[in-house]
Design a protein that fits this description.
Length: 345
């Protein structure tokens, strides 16, 4: 059995990891940490947790973690993850970081967008960006995975194949994305309480969202040239889900060519599904799953390509993708413990 630790196990991504790993036949969670709940059993804080309910939340000590686990999932905020990852790697563990600390390859870009000096810049060149469908072979042999952000997952999976094949222009890309409230984390914030979000729909972090450079980095690699795009995020009064609407300029007027390019690219990827022409994804159809559903429409009137993708921000956008990466790292079937069907309705 693979022994794993979840650092920051009381947040939404940590809880989602417990939910998924409870079904994993090859994994035993041997360590969970939480500063706030240290000393309590998991079942005391979350009575629904049975398989790992007797585990006791600990303070996040790299030394103790290293004695209990082979792999650590880091579910802590950016800034805190880098130092912990460095200590765990030095102790011989493998690490999957769900924060943003290792996603950006240029430490200057990290400093610009996150307002802090990177605490382990020497590891940036080693970290593999964990978009499993794109970097599957690299994930298999690394010891440090930078798990992608939720918005970048929904935004890049539809575009990377089309940019690689030159079927869309890298210029003039627009991504309009909406997320459920859980994307902001579990800590209490005034703007996220029920009365603030219910019956409301708003944009936030307009032109300054921290996922922007991550999306541009990956799409630039796919296009073979540096690109810039417009990325606007919105908060929707629902718990889970992301729907990204992407506008691009196609280099073909044949919608079938674009559709087939995506189908062929993801033919061997169990979690990316290209919907038939005329069908478009809904967040309700991916809730609780590791799926990414993609639909597209070539607008004959404007000549613009409209692509829509939907994911569950806590699963494919975070913990599910982390488990998918873990499966690849240890030679397990890629979809092991991730076969859940959507919670619909």
């Amino acid at each position: 059995m693979l022994k794993v630790a979840i650092i920051g196990a009381t947040g939404y991504t940590g809880l989602e990891l417990l939910r998924i790993l409870a079904k994993h036949p090859k994994v035993e969670v041997t360590c969970v940490t939480s500063r706030q709940e240290a000393g309590k059993k998991v079942c005391e804080v979350f009575p629904f947790e049975d398989r790992f309910g007797e585990l006791v939340f600990e303070e996040p000590s790299p030394e103790r973690i290293a004695n209990k686990a082979d792999l650590a999932f880091l579910c802590v905020p950016h800034g805190a993850a880098a130092e912990t990852a460095k200590a765990l790697l030095e102790a011989g563990l493998k690490v999957i970081d769900l924060s943003a600390d290792f996603r950006l390859k240029d430490p200057r870009t990290y400093e610009e967008w996150y307002g802090a000096t990177h605490k382990a810049p020497e590891l940036l060149s080693e970290a593999v960006y964990g978009l499993a469908e794109i970097y599957r072979d690299q994930v298999k042999i690394t010891r440090l995975v930078a798990n992608p952000g939720c918005y970048p997952t929904a935004s890049t999976l539809p575009l990377i194949p089309l940019l690689r094949e030159g079927l869309v222009s890298p210029e003039g890309l627009v991504i309009d994305a909406k997320s459920g409230v859980s994307g902001a984390g579990r800590s209490a914030k005034l703007r996220l309480i029920f009365c603030e979000v219910n019956e409301d729909f708003c944009a936030y972090n307009v032109a300054i969202h921290r996922h922007t450079p991550e999306i541009e980095q990956e799409l630039s690699l796919a296009a073979g040239e540096e690109l810039r795009l417009n990325f606007t995020t919105h908060l929707v009064p629902m718990s889970r889900g992301i729907l990204a609407t992407i506008y691009a300029t196609p280099r073909t007027r044949d919608e079938r060519v674009l559709h087939e390019a995506l189908q062929n690219f993801y033919a061997q990827s169990p979690f990316v599904r290209i919907l038939p022409p005329g069908e478009y994804p809904r967040t309700a159809h991916v809730r609780g799953t590791n799926l990414c559903l993609i639909g597209l429409k070539l607008d004959p009137r404007t000549g613009r390509l409209i692509i829509l993708s939907a994911i569950d921000n806590l699963v494919k956008g975070a913990s599910g993708q982390a488990v998918q990466n873990m499966n690849l790292m240890y030679g397990f079937p890629e979809d092991l413990a991730l076969e859940s069907r959507p919670l619909f309705p």
